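Hi all, long-time lurker, first post. I run a small reading group and we've been trying to get comfortable going from sequence to structure in the token notation. Rather than ask abstract questions, I figured I'd post a concrete chain and ask someone more experienced to write out its structure so we can walk through it together at our next meeting. Sequence below, copied exactly:
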Amino acid sequence: MNTILYTIIVALAIAFVLGVLLGLFKKIFHVDTDPKVQAVRDALSGANCGGCGLAGCDSFAGAVVKGDAPVNGCVAGGASCATKIAEILGQAGVEVKPQVTVLACKGTNECAKSKGEYHGIQTCKGAQLVMNGTKKCSFGCIGLGDCIKVCPFGALSMGEGGIPVVDYEKCVGCGKCNSACPKHLFKIIDKDTKGAIALCSNHSDNKPQIRKDCSVGCFKCGMCARKCPSQCIDVSSGIPKIDYTKCTACGECVKACPDKVLEIFNLG
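-- Answer (accepted) --
Happy to help. Here is the structure in token form:
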């Protein structure tokens, strides 16, 4: 009986001492935090998507209060979030355009020829390391869904053709899909973009090989640029690049493209 009593007394004494020490340590090592940081944190979306370029919402809140990150840096929160943060920091309102990501590849299983069966780790990064992708086009989508797994908004799903499909209603353009993609095939664009966009990332200048490997690959014929009445297409980098300040979304480039690499992007 005495042993049990002594044990209880010793345990309580140790707990008391530890409590006192923890209290002292908390006081000694206490760091004052700016209340604005918590206010900004509360205004964020809480997605922790990393679209701001930082580790998460906590990191972004601290950085934006210090002036190391822009008030409109939370892509998941969008314009309303940026407005709240600007009000907290006493800054003027900031215009934030909603963004989405676009897969710059149309190389479905039907269009892009396969190198053969891949039996390794079923990730795009694994296939990239082992055999430089699963398709003969070394620029093409591998199709094992690394991008889908990291999307915090459920905006990506695997299409019937073996390449990801973007749900533009859910996508916020955070860019996590592009970071996960070993070939970086995703482009982030403003959601209100209206005009042609090239859905190919093959920068090779080997035209015969491009056509052989993928029936929807851009083989650098330049017809899109020549037929564009607004002269807003530059093909010097190997992939058509559109100047949206000039593009009228007339569709002439889409009609001219023999492999239908170009599509008109218009979410209304």
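A couple of things your group might point at:
The mean pLDDT is 90.
The chain is about 35% helix and 10% strand.
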